[in-house]
Amino acid sequence: MSFLSVGLILSARVIDEVYLVHRKGASHAKPSGTSRDLRAERDNTLNIGAKPRRDDIVAQGDVLMRRSSVFNNHVGNPVTRRFGSANPAELHTKTGAVPFYWNAPSHYARGVEFEAHYENDFMFSDLGFTSMTGKRREAVNHIHGPDTHVNHLMPTTLIVTLGRGIPEGDIDFGWTATFVAA
Questions:
Q1: Is 139 left (phi over 0), alpha (psi -120 to 50) or beta?
Q2: What CA–CA distance (Å, rounded) separates 41 from 18?
Q3: Mean pLDDT rounded to a whole number for the chain
Q4: Would you give the DSSP letter of residue 91?
Q5: Helix (H) and strand (E) counts for the chain?
Q6: pLDDT(95) > 90
Q7: Mean pLDDT of the region 34-62
C-alpha cells in the first residue's frame, strides 16, 4: 500500500507579534517598533511512502510490516523575533538588538523515515531510522548573508528493539537501543 499526503498550513500573525507593549523607558516601543506588515507564515508539506505487509515469511503466523517515506517541508515567511545588528532595517537600540517580529528567510527540511516490525508467537523486533537535512535561505539575523542550517532539525536516529513474548501470560519484555548522531 502506498500513500501520498500534501499539506498547506497558513499561520496568521497574532496580536503579540504585530504590536509591542509600551513600557517605560523602552526605546523600541514606538510605531516603528511594530510589525504591522507581517505576512502569513506558509508551511507546504509533501510526504510520499509505502506500507507493505507480508505474512508467513519464516514460520506460519509470523508477520513483517514496513513503512518507508520521503518528506519535504518548505516554510515561507516564517515569523520570528528580529535580533542582531546586521538586519537591513538599520534600527538599533542601545544593546544593538532590534526586538520586533518580522518574516525571516524561508527554509526547508527534507528527510527519510524507515520503520520495520517483525513478530511471531514468541518474539518481536522493531527497527526505526530517521534522517533529515535542511537549509535556510540567508541567515535569520542577516538576510543578505550566506545560507544557514535550520536549527530545529532532528539528528539522524536509529532505534532497535528486540523482545520476547509469553502468550500464556500476555507478557512482553525486551531491550531497546537508541543511537543518535552527534
A1: beta
A2: 13
A3: 81
A4: -
A5: 1, 10
A6: no
A7: 88
Confidence of residue 73 (pLDDT cuts 50, 70, 90): very high
Around Cβ 99, how many Cβ atoms within 10 Å? Answer: 16
SS3 (DSSP) at 15:
helix
C-alpha to C-alpha distances, 96 to 56, 83, 101, nearest whole angstrom: 67, 8, 15
Instruction: Give the containing element (helix H, strand E) for 2.
Output: strand 2-11
pLDDT at 29 over 60: no
Query: Is this model's pTM higher than 0.85 or not?
Result: no
Please give the single-letter amino acid code of residue 119. Answer: E
Question: What is the rounded distance in angstroms from the CA atom of residue 72 to the CA atom of residue 47?
Answer: 7
Whole-angstrom CA distances from 176 to 121, 124, 132 are 19, 12, 22
- Taking only the tens place, the pLDDT of each residue in 106-144 is 889 999 999 999 999 889 999 999 999 998 877 766 666
CA distance 117 to 114: 10
Report how far residue 26's alpha carbon sits from residue 181's, in angstroms, rounded to the nearest whole number.
43
